[in-house]
Amino acid sequence: MNENITEGKYSNVEVTNKTVIGNLNFKKYENIVYVNNVLNTDENNILLLNKSNSKYIIQNFSNEDKFIYKKTITEIEKTNKDIFTSDNHNLKNGDIIKLNNIRRLEPDSTTLYINLLQDTIQANTITYKVITTTRNTFTLKTFGNSDNALNNISNIIKTSNKNIDSGEFELTTTKILENKVCKINIPNNTTDDLGVFYNIIINDDATSLEINTLGDDKLIGYINIGRNELISNDIIEEVDAKTKLLIADIPLKHSSFELINIETNKWFIKGNIFSNKITHKLTYDTDTGVRDYKIDGEAISLMNFYKNFVYEFDISDPTLLNYLFIIIDPTNKNYYKNIIQSGEMGHPNSFLRIYIDPSETLDYIYKIKYKKEPDDIRYELIPLYTIKATPTYFS
Predict the structure, then answer these.
(1) Is 195 exposed, middle or buried (0-12, 13-18, 19+ CB in 10 A)?
(2) How far apart are the first and last CA of the chain?
C-alpha cells in the first residue's frame, strides 16, 4: 500500500500486491477545541474553523454586556519570543488582555515574590495584544496603552520560570451574542491536499446555527433531525452544491456536525440533531392587571408550526389549576387529531403534545379556546399556530 501523506492529511491510497507503508507523518493536531462564548469569535461573532482535524465543542453562551474571562498562567519561557503557557486557554490572535501575578517566590521565602515582568510594564493596567497562539501557549506585545512608549514591546519577561505563583491573564470584551446565535465559517480549501475534517458539537442551548462556506466551496451531504416520542419519522434533508446551512427554532443542544473536505472546493456534511420536539411553557399571569395566559413568559401570538415536527406545551404550572386549554380548528370545532394530553392543567408533569403530520393543510390557523377566569360564561378564542411546510435548511 503506497500512501502519499502530507501534514497528517491522508489521500491517494493505492493498493498493490505489496504492502509498503512509507513516509508516515502523524502531525500532532489539537483534537478538541472548546469554544466558550465570544472568546473564539471575531468582531461579527463568527467562528472560523481554523484548527483542522479537530472537534469543536461549542458551549457557555452569554448575553452579558461585558464578559470577563480569566485563566491561569503556569509557565513562561524566554527564547527568541516570550512564550506564556496556559492550558486550553481559548485565546486567539488579536485578543487584548492584561497580566496578573507573573511572579515567583524569592528563594527561601514563603511570602516574598519576584515580579518577572520587565520593570517598565509591571503595572496591572498594562494591556497586551495576542500575537500567536497554540493550544496551550501564546505570545504577546504591549498594545493600546495611553503612553505610546509602553506599546509594541515584545521583550516582556526577564527570565523563564516553570513555577508561576497565582499567575493569570484577563480578557475583557464587550461583544454580545444576540439570542444565542451560533455562526460558523468553513475555511476555503483550494488545494488537492484533501482529508481535512472538523467535528462540531453544540453543548449548550442555541436559538440558531449558521454554517457558511467561503470562496467557491460547496456543501454536499445531509442533515438528520431525530424523531421524538415515536410519533413521527426522522427528518432528512440532502444537499448538493449549496453554500449555507441555516437552522433556527429547533432545540440544538447535543447536535453534532461533521465536515470533511473530499474534493477541491467540496465539503461533505453530516449533521445530526437530537430531537424534532419543540417545547413551550404555559402559565397564567396573575401579577399584572391583564390576567391571561402566557407562553414562555410572553403574551400569546401566532406561531408557525412546521410539518413533521412535534410541539409540546408544559401545562403543569400551578397557576393553571381549574383553567382550560382546548385546540380548535379553522371552523371553531374542537380539534383532536394528533394531539395527546397527559395529566391535568396545573398538575405536575402534565403536558399537551401536538404532532403536525404531512397531511395538514398549509396556512390553516388553529386557535386555543379558554376562559380568562374559571367562572366566566364567555370563552376566549385566540390564534395559536398556523401550519407551514417543513423548512429547507440548505441554501
Answers:
(1) middle
(2) 40
How big is the chain, counted in residues?
395
For 26, counting Cβ atoms within 10 Å of its Cβ (0-12 exposed, 13-18 middle, 19+ buried), the class is exposed
- Beta pairing, strands 218-225 & 266-273: parallel
pTM: 0.69
Distance of alpha carbon 300 from alpha carbon 246, whole angstroms: 26
CB 35 within 8 A of CB 88: no
Average pLDDT score, the chain = 84
Give 311-344 pLDDT, tens digit per residue. Answer: 999 999 998 888 888 999 999 999 999 999 999 9
Per-residue confidence band for 386, with pLDDT thresholds at 50, 70 and 90: very high
Give the whole-angstrom CA distance, residue 321 versus residue 348. Answer: 11
Per-residue pLDDT tens over the stretch 147-189:
999 999 999 999 999 888 889 999 876 665 556 888 999 988 7
CB 353 within 8 A of CB 312: yes
Domains and CATH numbers, the chain: 1-30 (no CATH), 34-62+178-266 (no CATH), 67-173 (2.40.30.20), 277-388 (2.60.40)
Give the integer Cα–Cα distance in Å for 259 and 270.
Answer: 7
Alpha carbon distance 76, 137 (integer Å): 9
Integer Cα distance of 169 and 100 in angstroms: 6
Q: What is the DSSP string of 325-350?
A: -EEE-TTS-B--TTEEEES-TTSTT-
Closest CA to 99 of 142, 47, 59, 52: 142
- List C-alpha distances in Å: 112 to 77, 103, 107, 159, 276: 22, 10, 9, 18, 60
